[in-house]
């Protein structure tokens, strides 16, 4: 059987800093910092020569690796329609609900967040005033969107008095990602097989600070054992679903992820994509 040749690429990781003041929690500000105040207190570094494998042919089962490719009927899902928030809520999310529940055999899915990303042509530098410069841009450092403590606070926020009832059910927290058009050859999303992650050594808790809230996430240190995957030429009808939390297994299968530059192998218009975050109940 033919074996796919891994693509060699560059991925951004947290830089290890043995001299870091551990009494100060790592943070990054998602707004303009006051004068002379650091925007963040840790460093990200590019690591070259990372092998990127084909998720399509990897044979990774979701129950074992937290990663799945699923299909969605993209009839009527033209990219321009995603500029209408009401249309996303009315048309796209119900269609996504059906596709995910059918894929996993789940009883229901509750969406708690979604985000459009439209890459500015000059990204990652971003020239002032250019098209899409103020839109959400691809995330370039390897990360997991939540720590377990952060997820527990989300349960309080989203379900309130129903939290105890929710906790009696089997559930997962997932991300669902797709390009608005395909084949996607511009800053695709990539994923680390969580079975290749040493949670004690590789994960680094960081506060992402916004004007009105702070979210605790994991950034990721480089580990040569990491096995990276992406979906070459991902279509608009293809979803990548990846795990962030499982009520039975905790974050054992939480999938670190980030975008990466295909460089000479890339082509096409600047990427536009939608990412949905949801609770799935069984």
TrEMBL record:
GO terms for molecular function: oxidoreductase activity. Coiled coil: none annotated. PANTHER family: BLL6449 PROTEIN, OXIDOREDUCTASE AN1597. Belongs to the asaB hydroxylase/desaturase family. This is Methyltransferase. It comes from Schizothecium vesticola. The lineage of its organism: Eukaryota, Fungi, Dikarya, Ascomycota, Pezizomycotina.
């Amino acid at each position: 059987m033919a074996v796919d040749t891994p693509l060699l690429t560059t991925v951004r990781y947290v830089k290890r800093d043995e001299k870091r003041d551990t009494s100060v929690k790592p943070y990054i500000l998602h707004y303009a910092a006051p004068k002379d105040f650091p925007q963040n207190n840790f460093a990200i570094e590019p690591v070259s020569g990372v092998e990127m494998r084909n998720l399509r042919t990897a044979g990774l089962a979701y129950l074992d690796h937290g990663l799945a490719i699923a299909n969605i009927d993209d009839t009527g899902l033209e990219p321009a329609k995603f500029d209408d928030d009401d249309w996303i809520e009315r048309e796209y999310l119900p269609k996504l609900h059906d596709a995910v529940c059918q894929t996993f055999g789940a009883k229901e899915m509750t969406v708690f967040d979604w985000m459009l990303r439209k890459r500015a042509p000059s990204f990652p530098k971003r020239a002032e005033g250019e098209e899409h410069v103020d839109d959400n841009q691809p995330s370039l450092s390897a990360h997991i969107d939540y720590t377990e403590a952060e997820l527990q606070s989300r349960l309080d926020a989203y379900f309130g008095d129903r939290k105890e009832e929710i906790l009696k059910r089997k559930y997962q927290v997932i991300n669902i990602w797709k390009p608005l058009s395909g084949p996607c050859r511009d800053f695709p999303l990539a994923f680390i097989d969580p079975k290749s992650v040493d949670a004690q050594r590789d994960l680094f808790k960081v506060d992402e600070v916004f004007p009105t809230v702070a979210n605790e996430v994991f950034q990721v240190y480089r580990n040569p054992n990491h096995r990276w995957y992406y979906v070459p030429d991902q279509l608009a009808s293809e979803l990548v679903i990846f795990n962030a939390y499982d009520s039975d297994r905790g974050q054992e299968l939480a999938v670190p992820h980030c975008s990466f530059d295909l460089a000479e192998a890339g082509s096409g218009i600047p990427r536009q994509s939608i990412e949905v975050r949801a609770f799935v109940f069984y």
